[in-house]
Amino acid sequence: xxxxxxxxxxxxxxxxxxxxxxxxxxxxxxxxxxxxxxxxxxxxxxxxxxxxxxxxxxxxxxxxxxxxxxxxxxxxxxxxxxxxxxxxxxxxxxxxxxxxxxxxxxxxxxxxxxxxxxxxxxxxxxxxxxxxxxx
Length: 135
Known about the structure:
CATH class: Alpha Beta
Number of helices: 2
Number of strands: 6
Shape: globular
Distance between the termini: 16 Å
CATH topology: Thiol Ester Dehydrase, Chain A
Helix content: 10-25%
Strand content: 35-45%
CATH superfamily: Hotdog Thioesterase
């Protein structure tokens, strides 16, 4: 039995976290924004790192898809490294810029930077994405 893949864009995870793509006009690059919401704070009252990681993952995944240059693909994150460089207080507007550093027809290596609206770098991520053709 074959199953048709139904893509929801944007996906529920992005909607839940309040992420939005603001630019994907350049192949292999995407820019996203998100406000650090109170419901995602840890016990110290700052954004929990997993949500910052999800933000980077969405931005890097989108960059990998745009790198595919017109091919209909889905991407799967094979591995990801996240470095937290500063605390993010609730209400902070964050921008994540992700770019493919190297890639081919089956894989893309992507990096991302997350910064506050005043330019303070709060996170860096890198990941490898695997491509799969879709119908």
